[in-house]
Description:
The structure is a single chain. With 195 residues, the chain is of the alpha+beta class. The protein folds into two domains: 60 residues, no CATH class; 129 residues, Mannose-Binding Protein A, Chain A (Roll). The protein has two helices and eleven strands, in the order βββββαβαβββββ. A hairpin with a 6-residue loop joins β4 and β5. The chain is globular and about 50 Å long.
Amino acid sequence: MRGWMLALLGACYQASGLDDFGVAEEETRPSCGDGVVGRDEHCEDGNDVPDDGCTECLYDCKGPGELVDSATGHCYRLVGEAHPWREAQLRCDELGASFGLAAPATLAERDLIMPLVVPLNSSVWLGGGDEVMEGAFQWLNGEPFIYPGGAYPWLPGEPNNGAGLGDEDCIELQPNGMLNDQVCPVPLPYICERP
Length: 195
């Protein structure tokens, strides 16, 4: 017989099949959760069916190199493989669940992700830039690019658009916690964020 699934007290159970008497052929086990957070899920409950009894979060910022902001619930994932900014953006999108390049819109958010950056001893791509209008930096996720008290954490002399030598439209976060505008084709590790 085919397998079955049962929602019981907010948890789902499944068995691979039933014998001739309707008894599970093997021990039942919790089954909600496939390790993938759907685009409309804040955590993994195993499927896209609303109100099906599968309500336990089985996946919530627990992947390799991930951390959660307890204040916002945002999930951050470090990807150590270096890619140009646009490819990094696409690879974050491929993670699903509304992942995009990280946009630390506050100093607290920036401080939270620094433990992911410092051990790399390398800059990482963030989800912001001034490609639309030179000098008008914005985050891709629409959050305002405004830090309290105007405390923009830029390196001294930055942003400078390559001091007139290059088209530095993408934002990198350096291991010292400072921002820099950088040419987008440079391959760097990156941080993805899921709201």
